[in-house]
């Protein structure tokens, strides 16, 4: 009201106040003066300037010592503006006949410091009204106002939920205000990530302004409402030998640190941290597992299935049998779900399972019965059978005259395991023949061959010997001048069948001719008899 209709100068705290004298300088001016008015209306002169001598004098006023400057046009400047400078100043121009006065009102403004939230709560608890913090904005003039916000929306007081208390304190030496607004708040679970801030509203030379604090997020504590149990590592299947960990968690904040774990077959819960580990699990670990809070108020459960796979091979290991013997072999599987079984012999997968009713040398080898559990990674078993088929040496000797008519080939066909050692001797002299050539030993069979050109009939002996027995067979061989084709080396079953068929044909023809002759003789005899 004091400033209504009067010229007003708005100044910023700490800056220089500049007040022009808004009077026209009259003729015959003697001097100009500035004064301000006390609250009771009494004047206090502060500056004087003579128009003739051009000298300036400043009155001894402590509040304005070394702060004043009066220009030639009687403009008054006051350095380092203070709140106490908010006064009514008057410019006076004096002549011999008259005194002119023009008042100026000074208003001083001070922007507050940026508001900050102090004495912040370490955490907030749901369902509990507690002090969240204090928003403080310092050194403002005139006094400002403080407003609280949550996630950008203003917080209005609500009894028992939002309680706001604003205090404004003035510094008696400076005249500046400090605004402190405390906020008591009852949070909910949804306030876990809420951003709280405060805004101070103040006045400056150009009007109303605002300034915001840095947002603050509080740790909101709330009780656990749900318990969850899970199995680690997160695999779709668990097999015998695995290590697993049960992890129990609660959705409260802070989360529970201890739980009770219930293991199949155990009546009482096992108190542990949020994890319970089991190593090298077996199939008997299959079952329902539970966990709860230590007060047993909440519980969750999960079912664990430990997959297993057993394989039994009979017989297994190294087995030695005699040729011609039977050997029953069985590979049985016991598993938690369908398993695939396959056989491997000497690194080659077999089409069918082995069955030995009469063992042959070619049946010998390394057998593997292997199985895998479908959809369970890494669960596989295998067992081996090393089958050894032994047999005493068996010998068959053959001979033939070579096509050049100059030599004969004598072959000793040998079967047996372990591989027999073969020696050749000539009967009579008993000398050992060392020029024999052997074929490759395959499936317990091989041949030893010699080529000779005897000038007279000889008897050759083939001796085959292994760890089981010594077998001796002899063969008479005619002199080179006498060809021999009765026992060809490479005779096979097809050739034998052809020879047999030819023999049968010849016999049939001979028998047919004899029958024809007999019939003809009988007819002739009857004819002669009838004629007589």
From TrEMBL:
The record, for Pfam families, names: C2-set_2 (PF08205), Ig_2 (PF13895), Ig_3 (PF13927)
Q: State the superkingdom.
A: Eukaryota
Task: List the PROSITE patterns hit by this protein, alphabetically.
Answer: IG_LIKE
- Where the record annotates domain Ig-like, the positions are 103-212, 223-305, 324-386, 393-473
Alphabetic keyword roster: Adaptive immunity, Cell adhesion, Cell membrane, Cell projection, Disulfide bond, Glycoprotein, Immunity, Immunoglobulin domain, Membrane, Repeat, Transmembrane, Transmembrane helix
Task: List all membrane-crossing ranges.
Answer: 505-527
Q: What is this protein called?
A: CD166 antigen
What is the organism field in this record? Pedionomus torquatus
Gene name of the encoded protein: Alcam
